[in-house]
Amino acid sequence: MTEKREYRMAELARLAGITVRTLRFYRERKLIPPPRREGRIAWYDDHHLARLRTIAALLERGHTLNGIAELADAFDHGRDVGDLLGLGEPTEETPVRLTPEELAARFEGEVTPENLAAAMDLGYLGTDGDELVHISHRLLEVSSALVREGIPLGEVLQAGARVREHADALADLFANLILRHAPEEELHRLRPLARSVIEAELSLALDRRIRKQGREGGED
Fold first, then answer.
1. Residue 213 forms beta bridges with which residues?
2. Cα dist from 91 to 37, 88, 133, 140, 189, whole Å
3. Is the pTM of this model over 0.70?
């Protein structure tokens, strides 16, 4: 097991590549958590160092200190990984662990405090110490692909919230159908059938929508 390291203020500032004065400023602005105090000595740890490096990375990407302060507050008060994943529940989705820097790199310029809060409220993101946890590798890849295509992350998240409502309704429909004819333990075994129906119907619906768009586009 890795031994927890602690640092005095001057050492932490040196490791983070900032001045002690800057470190004090960040602490006063509550950009980093309070240190552990032993008498008059303040002790910082690797959590503080990771946060300082995150601040530096976000500043390099053009974020303001006010925006970073809101992000820091969201990190500290976000849903933890247990709440996010629902410990003990079966799932076919693979969670992804990310540092704040990795998240910022995936969504260049789009990781605003508003978008971060929306992703946490939606249940896409949770926190686990210094890391963020995205609930689904597939959703993360699709979201970042849409943003690369020029769609703002805020609109992607709004669409995700609407999809969530429809998905919950479809899950209820399938579950009620099964439970009328089979015991509850069959739900997990038969879930691939529900997924296949939904994927096929969505594919057919997109075909219809594309054909409709083509007809409308061809009208004079």
1. none
2. 42, 9, 15, 16, 12
3. no
Provide the residue-wise pLDDT of the chain in tens; the chain has 220 residues: 446 789 999 999 999 899 999 999 998 888 888 899 988 889 998 888 888 887 887 787 677 787 777 777 766 666 555 665 565 555 778 888 888 888 888 888 888 878 888 888 888 888 776 678 898 999 999 999 999 999 999 999 999 999 999 999 999 999 999 999 999 888 888 989 999 999 999 999 999 999 998 888 766 5
Question: Do the beta carbons of residue 73 and residue 38 sit within 8 Å?
Answer: no
Q: Phi, psi (5° rounding) for residue 44?
A: -110, 160
Read off the tokens for 220: 């004079």
3-state SS class at 30 = coil
Q: Quick one: which of 28, 95, 98, 117 has its CA closest to 57?
A: 98
Contact 89, 71 (CB under 8 A): no
CA distances from 115 to 104, 109, 176, 212 (A): 11, 11, 34, 33
d(CA 66, CA 54): 14
Distance CA 7, CA 15 (A): 10
Reading the block at residue 87, the tokens are: 């410990």
**Concatenated DSSP letters for 57-77?**
HHHHTT--HHHHHHHHHHHHH
